[in-house]
Amino acid sequence: MTDVRSPQAGHGIASPGAAEEPADVAGETTADVADETAGVAGEIPADVVDETAGVAGEIPADVVDETAGVAGEIPADVPEETEIPPPRPQPGTFGVVAWARWGWRQLTSMRIALVLLFLLALGSVPGSLLPQQGIDPAAVQQYFTAHPALAPFLNALGLFNVFAAPWFAAIYLLLFISLAGCVLPRSFRLARTARARPPQAPRYLSRLPNSVRYETAMTTEEASAAAAAFLTRRRFRLSQGEGWLSAEKGYRREAGNLLFHVALMGVLISIGVGGLFGYKADRLLIEGNSFADTVTDLDAYHPGHLVSANDLAPFSLTLDKFSASYVASGPDRNQPASFDAHVSYTAQPGGVARTYDIQVNHPLNVDSTKVYLIGHGYAPVFRVTDGHGKVVYDQATPFLPAEQATYLSEGVVKAPDAKPQQLGFAGVFLPTAVDVNGQLESAFPAPYAPAVSMIPYVGNLGLNSGVPQSVYQLNTTGMHRLATPAQVLTPGQSMKLPGGAGTLTFAGLKQWASLQVTYDPGQVPALISGIVALAGLVLSLLVRRRRIFVRAYRGDSGRTVVDVGGLARSDVGGGFEAEFGELAAGLRSVHDHDSSPRSEETE
Amino acid sequence: MAVFGVLSIAACSGQIAANTPASNGSNFVSGNGDSSYFKAGGRLAAPDVSGRTLSGARLSLSSYRGKVVVINFWGSWCAPCRSEAPTLAVLSEQYQSKGVQFVGVDIRDSPASAQAFVQNFDISYPSLNDPADEIALAFRHTVPPAAIPSTLVIDRNGQIAGRVIGQASYSSLGNILAKVTAGGMSR
After folding, report:
1. Which of A248, A305, A385, B116 has the fewest CB atoms below 10 angstroms from its CB?
2. What ipTM did this prediction achieve?
């Protein structure tokens, strides 16, 4: 048996000085590519995407030396593509083109991409520390009143609308260009590699990690032809020359890699498209109420940069009924079991009314605009009669859950048109009210024993000043609390306010659902791109690129000597040795049957 | 005003309970008081809208054809609407003799609160009751009312001549009205 050399077996020959340079180039290119790769995303395992680095590491130095620019991953044509950094120009000779090249290289480098990513994160910080115009304009106005000197300055910097600020846009645009500038050239390179033919066989195959040598009775030409036929049957891609044969397999790895990069661009573009043309909006809707997808009828509205108010899908939606069920016993007691928002909707004014049951993760889809159920709560119905005996308030009032486990909720009632003075109430709603040692608590989130406890205020609600205020909070600075003993109201019960200020009636109970309206044209492309990227990644992970070299020459004895060498360019999963052994044995048996396959066939 | 996709609310978790609605505590999209005037020739036709008024009568916009119509989208719960209400009441009386008809569109409101508001501010012009916001929706292809309150001015030919987004002031709405009515009986 001839020896199959293991990769560790040895490569003791020192590099000749002359071969130093190509090796250097290889090293630099590798680093460069690795840089760019890492710049794309931290999650890509370096060894997957970067077969260059992997191979350079695997090829013993002597192989690289001898076959400089051939056996290695780095064919001679790569340097021109990978833009080996030109020698740093002298300051005086730094022309516009050089500057542009330098700038582009900087921008598309991993370091800058990371810096931009960091800046993006840093830029979002004021967005969470300062009130934002798009999210809470009332808070922004309050900030202006509280900090009259600082606020205009911050406003000039766009810090009250961070995500729409020009500097923020600049950061993410630069980041996008940086990523694109890194991924695109790499895609071209990969496309080229995926179509490349195997390089010339190295001269001394015995120095490869895997090699065998044997003799055959065939002539060198016959041996080469037989090896070519054998490897072609095994679906290798071939290059042939005088007395040598070079075969490579596993290009799907490159194809997968290319797919991954192209899909990554797809993800970026999809997100960009979604950000420009999509919108998100929230709406709290009480049972029996309707809303239309128009800006005036939304609670919060976050349009993309290229979305105008008349781009919104013109549907109307009515919440017919909301139901929730909860786990009644066991360790998961009080946990929600199901939510159903039964809605009826028309896709456009005058359209056919349809019904739908929106559940969590089961959104309603109206012409690609999705309506998600993202929250729910109770809306006690209150009726307020003012001091003159007039009903000035009669509606379901959304209360916000304060305790998730029991749905104890808080809310306020504002009757700004009550006479002689404006009335306000702040209090709690308890779906299943129980008395625990004189303390009112809710025992369960379902409305088994609903009750409210409200504290009345009279005075100035502050609404007439025109400053928007939260509908869930009472600004009591201009009001005073009416002295009444705490009263718990159950549905149908009323409480009389002292001094004939009026009456508050807990008239009934409804539920509300919080709906999120989203339109993201980039969602489906992003999903598809993501799946493709994953598939490409898996392909490039699983497929091994490997080369088999065959050299047939006349030996000293006059018989034909066959050298077979093998090189796995990315043996992540291992197992190339076994494959090589099997291929070498196959080749040998083809060559041993020297009496030529032809004679066998004629039998 | 545009916000580049920033919502902390994730719609994909199994639990929805933790999400309070409307990160916007004021619960509506408020405007900044921007007013715009559209020159004759560059105006879009207003849709004909109709509905029931707060007092229950039927009202359609086309019945005011030939007059300048001011449509004000409001709600009794909305602070800027309450703040601008006295201004609107004054302007509606001042311009009545110049052939200007004010019409309110009461949105996201309850009849009881709306009635109390109208009486409280001595609003003499009618208001359409539009709990489902269908009237605002009807304007979507023209000059949509982009906030609450929003005020649209429709000229004598039924075309939209101006808009105030957010709280209207005496000068912002008054200037538009002065221009639109100064045009005389066009055509």
Report:
1. A305
2. 0.80
